[in-house]
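Changelog entry

Holo records now carry the ligand SMILES as an explicit input line rather than a separate metadata file. Below, a converted record for nicotinamide-adenine-dinucleotide, shown in the new format.
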Amino acid sequence: MNYLITGGYGFVGSYLANKLINEKSNRVYVIDNLSNKNQNFVSKKVKKIYGNVSDFTFLEKIVTKKKIDYIYHLSATINESVFKEDVYNDIFTSIISTVNFLEIIKKHKIKKFIFISSIAVYGKAKKEKFDENSVTKPEFSYGISKKCAEDYVEYYSKKFKLNCSVIRVGNIYGPFQPKIGEVGVINIFIKNALKNKLIKIFGKGNQSRDFIFIDDVVNFLIKCKSIKSNIYNLVSGNSIKIISLAKLIKKITKTQSNIKFFKERLEEVGNFRASSTLAKKNKLKISFNIEKGIKKTVQFYEKNKQFL
Ligand SMILES: NC(=O)c1ccc[n+]([C@@H]2O[C@H](COP(=O)([O-])OP(=O)(O)OC[C@H]3O[C@@H](n4cnc5c(N)ncnc54)[C@H](O)[C@@H]3O)[C@@H](O)[C@H]2O)c1
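Structure line, unchanged by the conversion:
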């Protein structure tokens, strides 16, 4: 099978590409414009193509020439903070690119298009645990453009009978996660703990988040090829308070680091809880609880200090 992964030099894209290329009969192509200048760890066997997903002609050429069967659309701009939002970039990287692909696969049928969205589409936390039927009310540009792209996926899928799925992923963590501003809190805490540096918490640390380990994410994304076209939440289903997370990381790393509290940030969304019931009915298996996932991440950085 021939796979195309956009944003394939990024955190999730690299894991996905490396896993798919393990199967001998697969050919894997990644597209990336290297806007996120992180150290990439994509296997040499993966074919890397430099380019921008907002360029229709470029994408159409790749999809047709490489005879792509499956597309995983992952490219995105992870904004460092609300104050550094690049709205136009979000529009091009999430919305225009998605419409590009939908127009292409309308013309040149492929087996499946999988759009990676985010739980950011739900907006501020409410009392309820968000499932796929919950009201979506994104707060910031990143979530707004993800939601708009999702709507186009749904629209095209129905109108032109395309095989597409939307995956709303929770906060992902694991070895190699790049630091983008304060995004990627688990990796930031672990790296600081292993260097005996301060662990910074914005607010009182009572806000909770759903964290899902990278291996669980990638395993489900691969299963997505053969499940019913739909919108799926991809979360662990178990939220944890940031203060509990910091304490757990302190315990696991046996660090000398202290925890210090700073002013709450504007982008805080409260006590976020979501469920993956639909994905669980469709082959999702959560193999890593938070403690197991953190231990695996810590062990990686202890053995590979150059990535600290
Ligand atoms: N990491 C998380 O916690 C998380 C949570 C929910 C959803 N997601 C989604 O998962 C996907 C992957 O996230 P990630 O953590 O791997 O991010 P990442 O920043 O590590 O990777 C994104 C990649 O997209 C590339 N890119 C950006 N704009 C591009 C463009 N116009 N053309 C081509 N390439 C472009 C970047 O260079 C980068 O390599 C994203 O869609 C993100 O929104 C991530």
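Spot-checked after migration. The pocket of nicotinamide-adenine-dinucleotide is lined by residues 6-7, 9-13, 31-36, 52-54, 74-78, 93, 116, 118, 169, 171-172, 178 (CB under 6 Å). The chain has two domains: 2-171+211-234, 174-210+238-272+285-307.
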